[in-house]
Amino acid sequence: MGIFLKNMGKRLWRIAAGLVLAGALAATPAAAQDKIKAAVIFGVSNPASVNGWDRGHYQGVRKLIDGYGWDVTIAENVPFPLIAGTAENYAKAGYQVVVFTSSGQYKAWDQVAPNYPDTIFAMLSTTSTLPESKNVVAYEPDFFAYGVINGLIAAQSTQSNKIAGVAGLPVKAVEDMFSGIIEGAKAANPDVEFLHAISGDWTNIPRAREVTALQIQRGADVVLGNAGVGTRGILDASQSRKARFIGYATDWAEDAPDIVLTSVILGIDGWYDALAKDVVAGKVEPKIHTFGAETFKVMPLNDKLLSAEQIAKIEDSVRRYQAGETTVPVVPHKFK
């Protein structure tokens, strides 16, 4: 395995879990069993340092290690053409679980899973279909609902009545999220206009910075970003042009406390927790598990940027939506 990965030109982290304290054994059912050997495949380098989606997945990896005692290997910076070969070699090496972290890895998932029935292949990203195999499972967020929460916040925070979303590529997750933002914003403030831009990939920070600046020039004063590594460029442009920013997937408050309104947490570590429990219980089945609005968490709203009255109204609107007291129609939109 090590020779294979070296020849593939990938940098790996091998992370071994330490012994779990006796007092924690009862709380972690996997701890009483042999260590489960798992691999998690990332398209970026050093995912712990990439705030947003990838850091959320890294937090999930830590959940497997620290909470369940799994032996986890992380494959970093694996380009899409090499995903299938990487997953296949983990299966050949006897790994019990292989995790895909991006819907862009679907082709590899579909190609490899049917050929290795003794390995569980899990997609922890948005998907509408499963490979035709019994050893697959998916854990995904309801990105439309996630977008609605972002839209509710943005629409009640803007002063210009223009908000912007910037993404790397118009994949399904982005379209669902942006559609939710539009409908959530409309429910809170019918006068809000949603501007959007696509940077063209998930890694180009300067390009993301450039297209974000254009949306701010057009009048957007609240910006939301979903551009992978490029989200850093979205934050930079927002900070330099004094627009407000809503953090994606994980907490961005420490990155720019002067402009971050809040962050809407996807709770990706919860998907890993669900996977671990299903694996330990032997209940993995071909199924898409969807995590809805009630699973997302809004971090404390920035009282230096919002009044107490605004904060109270935003918090109430989010609470009512998450509780099902407010219905926002699911209307799909297309983006280029």
Number of strands: 13
Helix coverage percent of residues? 25-40%
Determine the mean pLDDT: 91
Distance between the termini: 40 Å
Provide the succession of SSEs.
Answer: HEHEHEHEHEEHEHEHEHEEHEEH
Q: Care to describe what's here?
A:
The radius of gyration is 20 Å and the shape is globular. The protein contains 11 helices and 13 strands. The model is unreliable at 1-32 (pLDDT under 50). The chain has helices at 2-7, 22-25, 53-68, 80-92, 106-112, 143-155, 172-188, 205-217, 231-240, 268-281, 308-322; strands at residues 12-15, 37-41, 71-75, 97-100, 120-123, 136-141, 162-167, 193-198, 222-226, 244-249, 260-265, 288-291, 297-298. The strands form 2 sheets. A 7-stranded mixed β-sheet has the order 1-3-2-4-5-6-12, with helices on both faces. It is an alpha/beta fold and 336 residues long. The chain starts with a helix and ends in a 14-residue tail after the last helix.
Keywords:
336 residues; alpha/beta; six-stranded mixed beta sheet; disordered N terminus
Fold blueprint:
Blueprint: H1 2-7, E1 12-15, H2 22-25, E2 37-41, H3 53-68, E3 71-75, H4 80-92, E4 97-100, H5 106-112, E5 120-123, E6 136-141, H6 143-155, E7 162-167, H7 172-188, E8 193-198, H8 205-217, E9 222-226, H9 231-240, E10 244-249, E11 260-265, H10 268-281, E12 288-291, E13 297-298, H11 308-322
Parallel strand pairs: 2-3, 2-4, 4-5, 5-6, 6-12, 7-8, 7-9, 9-10, 10-11
Antiparallel strand pairs: 1-3, 11-13
Helix pairs in contact: 3-10, 4-5, 6-7, 8-9
